[in-house]
């Protein structure tokens, strides 16, 4: 890698009204291999002027994307990102950074290291809704996911489709972008929490399955794991999105749906099987979690 010249691939994509209806469509994508001491971007003439003018003006200039999001993945080298009014943020191999519509920014590799960079631009109603719901947030433009083959494969799949433009290529690209966003979110959380957290969560899930028919003292279980309950609850919710208690209830309800669908047990027997002393409390919990009453579930699920 170090002894070959800088190189890049980029493509700016067409899209129509039908593509907009899909909810996510791609505006551009590409990859760049910048060697130490090489200019950035390597070949500005490959890009529309609105994308590259800031680099010809230096760090004092800031580019603004009007309606477009961008996702960048750095797999070698180091660099910096200026995002909005924030201080410079360091980038390194394994960093992912997001660019947001109407947020001024500037970024580049360090001249001493260069970098390898993959990027995709996208927009659409669904992308905008992810920002409104804070799955995409300008407050956290940089995440660290490590050197992840799954994410790299996602970018390579995007490039292959963009090169060939098969039928419905924008819909295919949009689906890959959504999957890539989910992968980035998941690997970032795993990297932040560490491998020890995953082991603890797996132990907790196993214990929940073991105790479907019995009461489970979550505070005592947390102490078994070497944590107090508040710390265990924070870790579990950060990892799964649910508190331990709510997750345990969801597991019970999932099992209840299966038992009811088999049709061999009455509601009272299913409640007893899952450790509920009161079938009426079980009925209320079931409806709250599924949106359907037990009788309605049985009527629709059982022949």
CATH class descriptor of the largest domain: Mainly Beta
Which superfamily, in CATH terms, is the homologous superfamily of the largest domain? Regulatory protein AraC
Average of the residue pLDDT scores: 87
Given as residue ranges, the uncertain stretches (5+ residues, pLDDT < 50) are none
Number of discrete helical segments: 12
The amount of helix comes to: 40-55%
**CA(first)-CA(last) distance:** 64 Å
Give the tally of structural domains. Answer: 2
The CATH architecture designation of the largest domain is Sandwich
Tell me the radius of gyration.
25 Å
**Element-level helix/strand string:** EHEHEEEEEHEHHHHHHHHH
User: How much strand?
Assistant: 15-25%
Q: What composes the largest sheet?
A: 8 strands, antiparallel
Structural class: alpha+beta
DSSP strand count:
8
| CATH topology descriptor of the largest domain | Jelly Rolls
- Quick one: overall form? elongated
